[in-house]
User: What shape does this take?
Amino acid sequence: MRVALTGTPGTGKTSAAAELDVPVVALNDVVEREGLWTERDDERGSLVADLDAVEAWLAEEAPAADHVVESHLAHLFPADRTVVLRCRPDRLRERLTARGADEPAAAENAESEALDVVLSEAVAEQGRGSVYEVDTTALTPGEAAAAVAAVFAGERAPSAGTVDFTGYVE
Assistant: This one.
């Protein structure tokens, strides 16, 4: 089984993934290490992933056994279940600036979170019945990982559309 662990930057994907007891494919690291990108986005300080190349890499190189694919892009690739980590936009902005993001980038990500951008993409790509939202605003990484593990184990029902941060739209 493949579980996609996705969400806006700053929602806690990498921290939760580090607490899981299943193999994790850190997709952003793979994109950089394997050269699966088309250009550098200097404005955002990131690489633009070559989605076709990433999908081909996952088909050939991802573990055959149960695993998690972690990235803000993970929902764009085939998965059995997709977990979208969410965080209240004002808290997300604080998290991002605390780890060194500039204010425009933090504001852009907070707005994306308020507008459900990743959730909407996940539902469009994977279908509502295989998308699970987890609000990490007040969770520790271990608690977020436990929620992901419950999805992995089939102990949670799909929950797309249960978290609403639209009141934070500026």
